Amino acid sequence: MYSEKVMEHFMNPRFVGEISDADGVGTEGNPVCGDIMRIFIKVDAENRIADIKFKTFGCGAAIATSDMVCEMVLGKTLDEALQITNATVAQALDGLPPNKLHCSNLAADALHKAIADFKERQVTLETGA
Amino acid sequence: MRSVYLDHAATTPVRPEVLEKMLPYFSEYFGNPSSIYKWGRETRAAIDEAREIVAAQLGCTPAEIVFTGGGSEADNLAIQGFALANQSKGKHLITTAVEHHAVIDTAKYLEKLGFTVTYLPVDEYGLVSPAQLEQALRPDTILVSVMYANNEVGTIMPIPELAQVCQKAGVAFHTDAVQAGGVLDLNVEKLGVNMLSLSAHKFYGPKGVGLLYHRKGTRLDSLIHGGGQERGHRAGTENIAGIVGLATALELANQEREETNQRVKGLRDQLILGLKDRISEVKLNGHPTQRLPNNVNVSIRYVEGESLLLNLDMQGIAASSGSACTSGSLAASHVLLAMGIPHEIAHGSLRLTLGRESTAADIQYLLEVLPPIVDKLRAMSPLFPEGEEKDV
Ligand SMILES: Cc1ncc(COP(=O)(O)O)c(C=O)c1O
């Protein structure tokens, strides 16, 4: 039911972990649906994603999309990263089963939340300074 | 790689002895049992014999057995067929919150047709009590349907006591005994039921064949209209090989019942102990003792069921889960939720169901393979408290 690419990212994810001094953190999903994704980003001076990690509770699709989105945006600018959607993540994995497109395909949303969190912290820093 | 099948509640392989009995009824004896010539008489005799074997196993008469196209059809026939035939007496039905969808969805369908249904809640073990049932009975209640054993958590309901409540009130009682077939006592007199459903593929018979026992005098409307087979209760040329397979499988299973149950129960308890011993924060779902001898259902905290199943599959192990992702719906198992288990823990449930060919080596293999999988998934889980500390 899952593509080879999904299984590869699910079985051997490369971006599992946390960044203790992350510049932005985003969480998406809820336990009722059975999927929770959390993404941590480090942003460099040129507004590029210098490091990215994830922690996910969920099914094969939830874990694979989390890992995929990390791979897709590492080294990209925040603007480029914001172009990535749940749909493009699913595409990059050679598609997901139809029943997974909804609940388990939220990794891009979690990433966008992490970026929003980063921007909010910038504002706080600037206004605070 | 080892192959270990631990999903016998989903289905079982056809036993060689059963297959052997079935094979002549595909090409050699192929006549239509309704035909009057020799070809028809031969297959009619095979069905008659199968019906007698089954009747002896259930302690009923052959005329009280209707062969169906499986357990779901038997449940549909029992509930829908009975409700439609008896609606002049009342339009209220009672069932439970933990039934198989073949029962729950049939009840929901009847609600659309104007019937009222009470879904009895269960306790933390998945049980309903006779007192609870007694309170739910109404003057217009015509039928109660309670499963014999639960397919997810293996909890065994007190059927004789529940049926007695109905008997006293003059209300018909049906039990979905699909998971109990070949494992528990199916004597319909001891159980005191008016109707009972079985499915052959759960006890090493073929798929797509089952039966409904209906006590003499129980009026049923047919769901499938046509040629008048099965005394007008189920039209369609009979699945001869399937019916022969069902009867052979049931007889064999009952002959070996005590011995198999004893052995499988030993393995089950070994498995439960092993899981608790090797994995932290595992909880057994269902009743500790009043449960099917082959059922293990545990919740493993902080991990999700489908992820567990995929990892187990990579190691050659077949299992099942009550997580949303494996049920094809967006919600976790209705059975676990009805037992009061919180969503995130219900999503982490793992069902391992043993069979007659399961061995201690199978259990050992699972107990070796599972803990590292759980560790790996917990390390990925944002819910796992230790995982958070490790990285900081
Ligand atoms: C309790 C219960 N009822 C009904 C069914 C349906 O049986 P079948 O698959 O033969 O339609 C099953 C099995 O899936 C079951 O476990």
Write the layout of secondary structure elements.
The complex is a heterodimer of chains A (129) and B (392).
Chain A (H helix, E strand, L loop, with lengths): L3 H8 L12 E7 L4 E9 L5 E9 L2 H14 L4 H6 L2 H7 L14 H22 L1
Antiparallel strand pairs in A: 1-2, 2-3
Helix pairs in contact in A: 1-2, 2-4
Chain B lengths: L3 E2 L10 H7 L15 H21 L6 E4 L2 H15 L6 E5 L4 H12 L3 E5 L9 H7 L4 E5 L13 H11 L2 E5 L11 H4 L3 E5 L10 E5 L25 H16 L1 H22 L3 E3 L10 E6 L4 H10 L2 E2 L5 H4 L6 H5 L4 H4 L2 E5 L6 H21 L4 H7 L1
Parallel strand pairs in B: 1-11, 3-4, 3-5, 5-6, 6-7
Antiparallel strand pairs in B: 2-8, 7-8, 9-10, 10-12
Bound molecules: pyridoxal-5'-phosphate (PLP).
Pyridoxal-5'-phosphate binds next to helix 3 of chain B.
Give a verbal description of the structure.
The complex is a heterodimer of chains A (129) and B (392). Chain A is α+β, with helices and mostly antiparallel strands and 129 residues long. Chain A is 44% helix and 19% strand. Chain A has 5 helices and 3 strands, in the order H-E-E-E-H-H-H-H. In chain A, helix 1 packs across helix 2 and helix 2 (60-73) crosses helix 4. In chain A, 49% of the residues are buried. Chain B is built from 15 helices and 12 strands. In chain B, the strands form 3 sheets. In chain B, strands 2-8-7-6-5-3-4 form a 7-stranded mixed sheet, with helices on both faces. A 3-stranded antiparallel sheet of chain B has the order 9-10-12. Mean pLDDT of chain B is 96; it is low at 387-392. The complex binds pyridoxal-5'-phosphate.
Question: What descriptive keywords fit this protein?
Answer:
heterodimer, A: 129 residues, alpha+beta, Sufe protein. Chain: A, three-stranded antiparallel sheet, B: 392 residues, Aspartate Aminotransferase, domain 1, Aspartate Aminotransferase, domain 2, 2 domains, 15 helices, binds pyridoxal-5'-phosphate
